[in-house]
Amino acid sequence: MKRYFFWLLLVLLQSFAAHAVEVVDDRGFRTTLPQAPQRIVSLLPSLTETICELGYCQRLVGVDRYSNFPLSLQSLPQLGGGLDPNIEAIVALKPDVVVMAASSRAGERLRALGLNVVALEPKTHGDVQRVLLKLGQLLESPDADKIWRTIDAGVLAAAQSIPASARGTRVYFEVNPGPYGAGEASFIGETLTRLGAKNIIPAKLGPFPKLNPEFIVRANPDLIMVGDSSAEAMLQRPGWPAMRAVREQRMCAFSPAQSNVLVRPGPRMAEAARLMAACLTDKSPGTVARKVQP
Fold it and tell me: Does the predicted TM-score (pTM) go above 0.85?
């Protein structure tokens, strides 16, 4: 009888091991689940979009307040932000796993409450690929590598659309009216480099540094990319009207929806590359991004 129970236990353990899903996240935590998660809370828009791109949007039971794409997410409970999530609401949803940014301290609280947490945070093109594959592993998706190849090919196609005359354009990309800019070391900066543009913010300043406005004036970019909500205020900064990009109306102001595409390192990265390419080549400014009058 003892041998029978030992054999049964061994079979059960082997069965668990055969079907278990294991992922090591960006903070070094190892999460093991008996099967791919069926109830997921996502607290970072890029992770939310990646889960949906993998084909598992229906497994999301709650998202952060900024996860707004695809539109089907609007029917889900909003659980605060990545840095200030509603812990009680998350626990009440009984998720199999919570995916969130590695930089958020809320993960420690959620783990202490017994929840499985996978912390992932894409910051570069390489990170986007890595996170896509990690989530594909977590969800047991066979399509993660194929999706990455499609994204990368889309960025390459956008780069190949840039005429020689637009290459070398010196660009300032503002992500926040701090002003915070997208430097060469950021995923946005990497896209600009692949498009043949020259970023005025060197990698040594970090991915998204807060800048002295005078630094940008001295750099005198050929082209400025900015969110529509910040564009008009930008023109009121001392010295900015004299910059070449402003004088020659070489400013692309992106709509909120377009800005979301541009600033999220996820599956819409090829679409972001096309938006930047259209701005660099001055294609269809009325639909891609409006020109800002000085």
Answer: yes
